[in-house]
Design goal:
Length: 503
């Protein structure tokens, strides 16, 4: 009789654990696979230590023992970092390996394969602490010191493999931190179960930009690409790259009045929920006033709105609106309106996308205005990235039934005008505002050049700004070349009397 082969032991079912970093679990589709070894790499200042602390503190909050093994910093330095974030490390065990003996380059310290007879003092100390504390989560900071102690690549690889096997046998989930002092070293990437890469990019002006990239994660369908993050008091917060197709709600597109009969006639009834409108024109022509008129009407209907102001100060914005009879402060008091001044020099593009998501999903905003895209462009590393980012943002807002107003400034007053970027093909509707000369006065014209949802008017009208906000005059049928700024008068279209006082 033939002997039956021995059955293999059943593989332990893996489970996921939270990283403790807002946004990172979202990118990973639910967190890290437990009881694996991960590499977190990045140059000094990217926040590796902070991320490691958040990982351990999240476990401590769930009743899991945590161990921070440090070769590069002292326990006092770690506690100082924690204090800067308002954290306490009392629930964690900290094991210092930064002793004179451990860091002696002449010392024969190594972590050997378990089959070997001797273990170096470094490995012995780590193993004693793990066996004593029995942590569920471990942070090993940093591998650059271990690389120096190993003295050659073969011994270094054996050290890391031995550590990986030891931690696996103790059911530990481990983050190994590395400062990328050896750019060509790929040993860690092949050994680690996953690789999280942190980057810091210095800009010529403004705040540095930080981003994270998941380079590898076995067995997990993660969201690839770069994701912006900020390192501030309270730790790291990551803003997952927005993918519009992952979000959306059921809604019925409804045409809603702008509050101006003339504007409604131009737009074919008004603004449509779930669409975006681009307001284009030179500085001072009235783009912001028209958008505020539309938003105020939405607020009066009881809708919630968020206005993102890049160019003007808040005081100037409210004072100008009030001078035109557009009272916004009462809606600020009621909580229906949120106005935020955004500094593009301090803004990460992913952070702005998250601000919009919070406004829609948390605050319930159904009307959003961005004033203006010219300043937002300065926060982006290049025009092509603005196009891609705006495509996802606008698609997301449309899928959630939001009415979006975008303001884009043009350079030049009369004649040929220049745009920093052309976003007209991304917009559902486009409204053009222009200056033109008539009777020795500078006047304003308005028209709708595009609307995907309504049958809009093709006429050009005079626009007046006054105590009532905006007023739309008759079609300028007696003029030709209004959009060029230098029209030819061929008819009897009267100019608006109010325009004489406000031009």
């Amino acid at each position: 009789m033939s002997e039956s082969s021995p059955s293999l032991p059943a593989r332990k079912r893996s489970h996921r654990i939270s990283t403790g970093v807002p946004g990172l679990d979202d990118i990973l589709g639910g967190g890290l696979t437990a009881e694996r070894v991960y590499l977190v790499e990045g140059t000094p200042g990217t926040g590796k230590t902070t991320l490691g602390m958040q990982f351990l503190l999240d476990g401590a909050a769930r009743g899991e023992a945590g161990l921070y093994i440090t070769l590069s910093e002292t326990a006092d330095e770690l506690r100082a970092v924690a204090d800067s974030h308002g954290w306490s490390l009392d629930a964690l065990a900290i094991f210092e390996l930064a002793s004179d003996d451990a860091l002696d380059p002449d010392a024969q310290q190594s972590v050997l394969h378990p089959a070997e007879i001797e273990l170096g003092e470094t490995a012995r100390g780590v193993m004693e602490q793990v066996n004593k504390i029995r942590p569920a989560r471990v942070v090993f900071d940093s591998l650059s010191e271990m690389r120096l102690l190993a003295q050659n690549p073969l011994r270094y690889r054996r050290q890391i493999l031995a550590l990986k096997q030891f931690f696996a046998s103790r059911a530990c989930t481990v983050l190994m931190l590395d400062d990328k002092t050896s750019q060509s070293d790929q040993h860690l990437h092949s050994i680690a179960h996953g690789v999280i890469c942190l980057e810091q990019l210095a800009k010529e002006f403004g705040k540095e930009r930080r981003r994270v990239n998941i380079m590898k994660m076995r067995g997990i369908a993660f969201r690839g690409g770069y994701h912006d993050y900020v390192l501030d008091t309270g730790g790291i917060r990551i803003f997952p790259r927005l993918v519009a197709a992952e979000h959306g709600v059921e809604f019925n597109p409804v045409i809603r009045s702008t509050g101006s009969p003339g504007l409604d006639a131009l737009l074919g009834g008004g603004l449509v929920s779930g669409t975006n409108t681009l307001f284009v024109g030179p500085s001072g022509v009235g783009k912001t006033t028209v958008v505020v008129r539309c938003m105020l009407t939405a607020l009066d209907r009881g809708e919630k709105a968020s206005y993102y102001l890049f160019d003007e100060g808040l005081g100037t914005f409210f004072a100008r609106a009030a001078s035109l009879g557009l009272d916004l402060r009462r809606h600020m008091v009621s909580g229906l309106l949120t106005v935020r001044h955004v500094d593009p020099a301090e803004l990460a593009p992913g952070q702005f996308a998250q601000m919009l998501r919070d406004a829609v999903e948390t605050d319930g905003a159904t009307f959003i205005a961005i004033d203006s895209l010219n300043a937002y462009l300065q926060a982006m590393p290049g025009e092509q990235f603005l196009i891609l980012q705006m495509h996802e943002l606008l698609a997301y807002l449309n899928l959630n039934g939001v009415t979006t107003a975008l303001i884009l400034g043009e350079h030049g007053l009369i004649g040929e005008v220049i745009r920093d970027v052309d976003l007209s093909y991304l917009s559902d509707s486009t409204m053009l505002l222009r200056y033109f000369e008539s009777g020795g006065k500078l006047r304003r014209a308005i028209t709708v050049s595009k609307s995907r949802m309504t049958s809009h008017a093709l006429t050009i009208h005079e626009l007046s700004l006054g105590a009532g906000g905006i007023d739309i005059g008759e079609a300028l049928e007696g003029f030709e070349g209004v959009l060029t700024g230098l029209p030819t008068y061929r008819g009897t279209t009267p100019m608006m009397a109010a325009s004489d006082a406000n031009s």
